Records
---
Amino acid sequence: MAIKVVCAILEQHGRILVTQRSQHMPQPLLWEFPGGKVEPGETEEESLVREIKEEINLVVRPITRLTPVVHRYSDKEIMLIPYTCRYLSGVVQLAEHRSYQWAEPSDLMKYTWCPADVPIVEEYLLHSSAI
Ligand SMILES: Nc1nc2c([nH]c(=O)n2[C@H]2C[C@H](O)[C@@H](COP(=O)(O)OP(=O)(O)OP(=O)(O)O)O2)c(=O)[nH]1
């Protein structure tokens, strides 16, 4: 069964937070939206709030659930569940990632994404340009 992973599309002042996985993580050096696995007993929103606090030290509020993507990597299958999120408080401090950037929407397609993220970036761009 697919492992559920939630990720945050965090918007602030028209930019989106993107994080680069470290050399020592699965999918090394690829870009992703911060997040992580949903633990037993947690709602998706609870895991997302917890992961974002643990990984980048921000407090966020999940707003809209976009379309989940099921992707098979060589060793596992994940269901990546994206939420747009609003920034509430905190200053970015990376616990695990190699780097981060606040990206312009028009630059999002330039990153080397984890493969599971590509349809999510595409949907997000469609959704945001429709506003
Ligand atoms: N957080 C996050 N993970 C993603 C994204 N896209 C994507 O393919 N992934 C993958 C990478 C990991 O294999 C898995 C997320 O699990 P995780 O971030 O907790 O990874 P982990 O270091 O605990 O991995 P593991 O060795 O325990 O499997 O999902 C994304 O946008 N955000």
---
Amino acid sequence: MALVTTTEMFKKAYEGGYAIGAFNVNNMEIIQGIVDAAREVNSPLILQVSAGARKYAKPAYLKKLVEAAIIDSDVDIALHLDHGDSFELCKQCIDDGFTSVMFDGSALDYEENIKVTKQVVEYAHAHGVVVEAELGKLAGVEDEVNVSAEDATYTDPDQAVDFVKRTGVDSLAIAIGTSHGAYKFQGEPKLDYERLEKITNLLPNFPIVLHGASTVIPEFVEMCNKYGGDIPGAQGVPEDMLRRAAKFGVCKINIDTDLRLALTGAIRKYLVENPSQFDPRKYLGEGRTAIREMVKHKIVDVLGCDNTL
Ligand SMILES: O=C(CO)COP(=O)(O)O
Ligand SMILES: O=C[C@H](O)COP(=O)(O)O
Ligand SMILES: [Zn+2]
Ligand SMILES: [Zn+2]
């Protein structure tokens, strides 16, 4: 039980052809649900915090919650900054004890992305912290940034090689057709596996990261809609597509939307079925249980990282 970097996790995942789940967290119930699931099935974990989540939960609280989760479990946890948009934010998280940071320079031009990523890598590595970067542009919503489908660009394999060589990053998030949020595909879900395979061949033994990789589990979308929600036409990345990606060098699979849907669906259901209840422990507890069971399913049936501690 320790706070660790992702180095060993990724090495084993790459060799084993499976992926580690990177789950977005912003409160106690979400953290507990995820960590309890990982403990039950002996899986390493990446808990990731976006700038928005850090602001919401406050840095000091988040750090203590994750430390408490480590004391309470036998799980190796990497604490990761998700979509850091500046050197300063990455530095703050490194100084706060994060073991991994993402610098997302995908909105910058190529040379600027390289420049800042390199700066983050130098500071992070000097402090024993690993760095994820992003090349290419995913469609969808992250915090206030909304990238339309037309502005999304897939990662260029040759550029990925140049980028990794020149920045010294430890892992790279690529764009092959996934997107953030609950509306990933209009028609048939499709990922560019040819591009992924090309990148993996050009960068052997190098961990690739898939953002926007929630399945948007129909059970929870239906639960939200049945109990007063309004989330029509939501669609995510089917599970078999994620399993296939894990076989091609994808070592980290990011999941946020599925956590949100599980928590919200379970709470909506509980409140509708128990209108006289107003004890937060009751409905938040339902949400926490839903997250635990969903994450267990992900780890065992989709990511394949159970019993790898
Ligand atoms: O990539 C993500 C966080 O960085 C989350 O993606 P989803 O919206 O598919 O859960
Ligand atoms: O990549 C986006 C994640 O889902 C985090 O979302 P957020 O920035 O709204 O916390
Ligand atoms: Zn991005
Ligand atoms: Zn993301």
---
Amino acid sequence: MPKAAKQKKGGGPSGPYDRKSKPAAGGAAANTNIFKFDKDFGQHILKNPGISDAIVDKAYLKPTDVVVEVGPGTGNITVRALEKAKKVIAIELDPRMGAEVTKRVQGTPLAKKLEVILGDVIKMPEMPPCDALISNTPYQISSPLIFKMLAMKNPPRVAVLMFQREFAKRLVAKPGDALYSRLSVNVNFWATCKHIMKVGKQNFKPPPKVESDVVRIEPLIGSARPDVAFEEFDGLLRIAFNRKNKTLNAAFAIKEVLAMCERNYKVYCSLNNIPIDESVSAAGTAGAATAEEDAAGGMDVDMEDNEDAEEEEVLGGGGDEMEEDEDEDMPEFFKQKDEEDSAGTKTPARNPKSKVALVVKAKVLKVLANTGLGDKRARQCDQNDFLRLLLAFHEEGIHFS
Ligand SMILES: C[S@@+](CC[C@H](N)C(=O)[O-])C[C@H]1O[C@@H](n2cnc3c(N)ncnc32)[C@H](O)[C@@H]1O
């Protein structure tokens, strides 16, 4: 578990993952409003005990379970989980809330089962290992929290989480649905997800602007977990969903994407002792064409001629406009290691004339053609299509993380 400040009686030192801190306040804040709730922290406290009960009930906790609760606030869900589980690790950004939840159980048998970690759960290098994750999620961290959980090598058995309704719908969206996204594919690939209940805004204090939903997510664990690296699968999805309405041929025609494939291919070759021909040919020369044709197996496909790729050019072709708000980090993802590859060598990644660039481009073309997915759009593909595509790229030595 990462080292973070643990909450002592009545509030303690801030942890290393803080975004900002406020002075601790005493008293039962939820009832007396001693301190002002901070909307920047998504502080909408559950005032309907029935909902707190339902969240904990739907986790089907065992007495041996370790539970992580993100954002305990004043402890409405925490106390219920403490009654059913062996231990609750409550991760709270706001020290005032950390003090509240600690006070709430002070002097009761539940106190020794509670550990409060002050800090930002998203900035923690790893989430503490646990059997169950529960949260009335601060909405601004919905997406990173899900990704953090799905990326865990040993994820919890179950997560019961409250989200904004729109976000919850994205989790269960299917191919073809308007809300289908990189998030939907990841959740359905690494877990099963079920809608549990709707929660109206009147159940919170202060009421949020939007309605909420509770979902139950069961990550695939042990041998059921797909045998691919999370970062690889997600890396492929980032490319595909950068323009989810464009064909995969167009998504992979973006120059930053090809440059990234080239960088990763070079790393793959150097790790596997595969010689790389770095020679530079004049564009359009016989040498360049041969490299491309060799790798493509003589296929008559040209990504640049594809209708969607042309549209990219008209739009500027930079690949840095987002359709998905969870993909806001996409440009950085493409630009990573732009100057140097991980072996520290300068990479002429953007030089279209380098032979290795042509080989990589041809490999990409070959995979898209052979899988029959090049003409499909990300919004039409299900998780099995993406897995098939990823494995075909791996066969060619093309990686995404
Ligand atoms: C919606 S409130 C839920 C409070 C309580 N669980 C309830 O249901 O009444 C969200 C809580 O998450 C905390 N929080 C916000 N961002 C956080 C972060 N990045 N890491 C940990 N806690 C966070 C807030 O301070 C707040 O206490």
